[in-house]
Amino acid sequence: MAVSPQSACIRLDGKEISQQVRDELAATVAAFKKEHPAFAPRLVAIQVGTRSDSSLYVRQKAKACTEAGIEFDHIQLPEDIQQAELDARLNQINNDPAVHGIIVQLPVPEHLSTRHIVHSIRPEKDVDGFHAENIGHLSKRATEPFFYSCTPLGCVELLRRYSIPVAGRDAVVVGRSDIVGSPMAMMLSNLDATVTLCHKATSDLAAKVRQADILVVAVGSPEAIKAEWIKPGAVVIDVGMNYKADPTKKAGYRWVGDVEAAAADRASYMTPVPGGVGPMTVAMLLSNVVASAVRSFEASSRIAIVPNPLKLQDPVPSDIDIAAAQPPKPIAQLASELNLAAAEFEPYGKYAAKVTLDVTERLKGNGDGHYVVVTGISPTPLGEGKSTVSIGLAQALYAHLKRPAFACVRQPSQGPTFGIKGGAAGGGYSQVTPMTAMNLHLTGDIHAIAAANNLVAAAVDARFFHESTQTDAQLFSRLCPAKKGQRRFADVMLRRLRKLGIDKTNPDDLTPDEVSRFVRLDIDQDQIMWRRVLDTNDRFLREITIGEAATERGMSRKTGFDIAVASEIMAVLALTTSLADMRERLGRMVVALSKQGEPITCDDIGITGALTVLMKDAISPTLMQTLEGSPVFVHAGPFANIAHGNSSIVADRIALKLVGAPAGEPVTADNAGYVVTEAGFGADIGFEKFVNIKCRASGLVPSAAVIVATIRALKMHGGGPDVVPGRPLADEYTQENLELLERGFANLRRHIENVSAVGLPAIVAINAFATDTPAELELVRRLSREAGAYDAVPAHLWAKGGAGAVELAEAVVRCCSAPRADSRFRFLYDHNLPIKAKIEAIAKQFYRAGSVSFSAEAERKIEQFTRSGWDKMPVCMAKTQYSFSADPALKGAPEGFDLPIRDIRASLGAGFVYPLCGAMQTLPGLPTRPCFYDIDIDAESGDIRGLF
Length: 948
Ligand code: NAP
Description:
Its EC number is 1.5.1.5, 3.5.4.9, 6.3.4.3. One of its GO terms (biological process) is tetrahydrofolate interconversion. This is C-1-tetrahydrofolate synthase, cytoplasmic. Helices cover 37% and strands 17% of the residues. The protein has 33 helices and 35 strands. α6 crosses α9, α13 (386-400) crosses α31 (806-817) and α26 (711-717) packs across α28. The radius of gyration is 35 Å and the shape is globular. The site of NADP nicotinamide-adenine-dinucleotide phosphate has 26 residues, from α9.
């Protein structure tokens, strides 16, 4: 239709306005991209079948998207696709965080349900605005939809751009379809027009139309609304697009609207057909996609902070009672607050989920958050509350200072949970919850590690057995059996061949000598280093004899078990950075030496693929939460005294990205959150390994270290009586004693000096007990500052949760806001130094030993490791946590002692050598009265009791 140029009617020029809108969108997208290079709006259009009109519409949308800088994917599916297949496809696209809008081109073939399809698109990607949730929110006064349907939105935009007032006017909408008429009526009503909605059953339509100040017509019936019905001066928006036969036209037809063209003689404004509403619809689709992309981009750079407030009680109830009284958020809710896409997490029950490593790829443009490591002084056997401080600090940052904050902690081992120490979910009002799930099997990672470890052990002994009883030819025909006349090497066998320098891929091409080298690992039974593991403090398995049955033909040997969390596979899990890296590391783990002294690896045994399969779920960190609703990653659990004592690199990396600064922005105090990661035991143990092993492997640089101290432990270091689990504390610990405290401060001073020596600011957290006096707390505060600590703050996290650690959290924020410590952070030693030099660097600089003595066995192995080229790795000291020395009784800050190295092991997969200092055991035992006495279940309710 052409509006008469003579009339006073102003043409609502959809073509021109839509071009303006599209130009503005293109400029917005370009500007956003310039500031945030990772910003990439994307629309996916699904077309089922090949209808030519649908193809034309899709092409128009594709062109418009490209011009606006929006990526456009056209997915054309076969006409006969079944609903289930289409659902699966839609689900995949719904879950793809790179897609911001999805449209399914309608109509779809009759065997498919339009209603089902429309509602299968997630409302936040439903850029057509058709989903019932979006329509529902539109029809409510108090809420807004994610998207408004594009055609009525285009009509409103025309009214807006022509500055046509709407509020208080009488509007009539003719037609009540779900996509045009009904939402149009609601949108006009929301703009405060008084709306009449007409349809086929409307009586005296002409009279209704005559009342309209604003008339919108969408009936799909050519010229159904007569010109003489139009109120003089009315605004007419004609949505209709109809063919009308016209022999004068080349095509034989012309486009007409639902309103007679002559209506322009009476109207003040009117849309032409074509060139009115039509072009606006496409422009609004683009506008919806850009809005969606911006929303998703902004949300992904900011996690929602939704605290779960505590109801503190005094006296403080038991850990398990506190946890039971504070229901966690459903894990899907927490995941959504973190902006995790559905494909990025997999729930394990109601309150835990595995999070995939893909998150770091999606957020790779983001800066990292502030990385804070929590360590401690040399503890008493009761522990000084490092986990409690880590968790309470995260709660304070998140729930009280409203900063994005993650805690990254280790998964508790069943050994301590049922032994002396109890669980490791924190304590009091600073806990990971549900603590029962965390302290027990959780997502089964430790079981997976034990399964993988023991599969290796079984494979090594079995291989030794088979090699001892078979010729080369027999071994070869069994390792590479002919199937249907064809022999082939398994992939892992090709790795062994490459290692042997044999580049053949066809088993039939091997010479007898090559066959012999390939099949015969020639394991020296006395040099099998691989030990079995279990996650129980079972002291009688420390040394055992295996192979006693007659079927093993006398090939018995002595070996032993370690605790699963001290295994090399646990270390690999904690230090790996990707599935491919984990496979590589598992493959190079050395299990034994051959009779010629050559190392035999898991690749040689042929087990690497199977191990990776067993570990494939374990590589994803487990998302949980604190009592106050802040996110926690629980992942990996190496002990700090006999392993490297730190949770996983992948968990820290994902958390750092999730709380990190938005892409393209430099990290500042305000735009980045905090990741609180815990390093086991005292700073001489877990923290030293955090720096020299974990940070070396991850490349991550911490901003600050929190050193946890208790008045109790400091008094013990000052010469207080023994602290023994299960026995009441001596009076020295419950009454003020400044002299003992000041003497024992030497231990904390040494740890502050050590943290400062690697270039990190140290913040002392005094984990306060009810018996600590103000003078005692003040003394530690003053001495810590004098010793060079950035600050020292008493924290009441056990009794008050995050509220008790606000001052500590503020100190952490202040410290991290100071110019970053990157330039000052340094490793303690160069990993290329000889093994002994590295051990001495740790012993003399961190422990302050006067000398290091090596047993003959340790000397022999160091020589052997050096010959094998295994001397270029960092060192993972296995040493008691109770003293800087190898003697647990040597408290305080001893100096000049001798550090005896009893033995040394090599963990090629983990990437460190592992000296054993003094009498360290790699499998703890149970005491006379272990924790398990108190652990029980209420058989009626199923509630667990006695865990702490
Ligand atoms: P629809 O789903 O067929 O709905 C038509 C509506 O009009 C129904 O509510 C129907 O009433 C009502 N109606 C039909 N004849 C009527 C009459 N004589 N008197 C009063 N009411 C009558 O149509 P639609 O999808 O909304 O599309 C309407 C028109 O707009 C079509 O020409 C279409 O091509 C066009 N359109 C254009 C765009 C664009 O981008 N420009 C976008 C969408 C649609 P009942 O409910 O009582 O049956």
